[in-house]
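Hi there,

I know you've been waiting on this one. I reran it after we fixed the sequence typo, so this is the corrected version. Both the input and the resulting structure follow.
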Amino acid sequence: MKVKKIKSEQGQEEQKVHNKKWRLPGWYIGFWAVFLILGGTVAFLATYYNGRLMPNLYVGGVEVGNKTASEITSIVEDEVARLAVTFEDSTGNKVTAPINQLGVNVDVAATVQNIMSARRSQDITKNIAVWQADTFPLVYTNDAGMFKAFAVANFPYTYTDPQDAQVIFNSDTNQFEVQASVAGQGFDVKSFEENLPTLMSNPQSVTLAVSTVPVEPIISDSAATKAKDEANAYLALSIEFLRSGSVVYAASPADIASWMHFVPDTTAGTLAIEFDSAVVSQFVNDQVAGSITTLPRERKVIVDSQTGAETVIQEGRTGYQLEGSDSLVSGIMEALANKVSYSKEVTVEEAPFTTVVVSTDEGKWIEVDLSDQTTTLYIGNTAIATYSVSTGKAATPTAISESKIYAKYTMQTMTGTINGEYYYVPDIPWVSYFYNGEAFHGTYWHHNFGHPMSHGCVNMTISDAKTLYDFAPIGTRVVVHA
């Protein structure tokens, strides 16, 4: 009997385990029920509002729920049209402008896209919370420069432009100095911009007071001082050019300063130093080459058309010119980039002279310009040579005349009295008389040519006087004028 009872009890336990195994917990069933309900709700909303906006959504004060994209676009455009700002100054002067004239651009398409995407995210709880009201602001961008232009045009008295600090080269001290900045004033743009988010959320017409704020320069005194110190360090560099070991030209501080440009960075508020390679090239070609270059001088020969005799009125001279100027420019620019001095041996190349032969068919004549203190040799209308001379002083002037050479002497001693003043000058070379005792001749007692110095004759260098002597036979016309 005991055995049967035990078996019966085992069967009852097995039945209990079996019954317990197939019974689902209540929470589990509840979870899936909620999930199915939410899923169904989302599916219903997605189907019902396909192409339309979910309910209880607003743009400004206008509900846009259950609207299509084109309908919402019209609503947004109407809201944009409502946006206007009236500015009033302390005198009662008012100016009203639509928002787009103030540099504010509303992006209608982006605004509609934001609204149409509402409650269509992966967050289901937000998607089905249709009882909650959501307001969408207008999407916009702001151009502060356009707003400033509006303010300057309508309230010009509110603006005084600031003056940036400047770095200026002082030619007296050969140093860069700072010209201090000056603060300005301007329309309070920040106050306007702080009101924009509210206007975009609730489009309307508003009135704002005109106010000004100090406007600081972009380039401050400290930024300019930093650039000035850097620039003056460049001025201390030695940049020199040598020929056969001797310095033929050294760049001065003014030279180096002329190569520099100060370039403002308006974002960082700094000044950067840049060197202009074109200006450095001009320096090399003008200053360095100018100190080395000797231009060739033509050899001028006159051929007598009757006899064939040649007279050299100007000897030729070989010139010299700088070679490799481009490499010098590159070397200078590299040295400046590395902030080091630069010393370079330069090379030159010869520039040969040419010979010019002039025929005397058109006739020779000589011009003396008392104003310029010059004498010019002509064949016809062609000037062959011009010389700096010294004519008569104010008390003993050279006469204005038109005459001909009437006597010539290779050497002569001149003596006499003019205006009570006795003179005696021996061994005067290359004398050519042309008018009342006035003559062209060589002069060894002074070298102040270009200024009146004589008793009436035309003083020339000895070499120039010989050239004129050889050029002009007796009978050559001479014209003297003021």
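Quick highlight: The two ends are 168 Å apart (CA to CA).

Best,
R. S.
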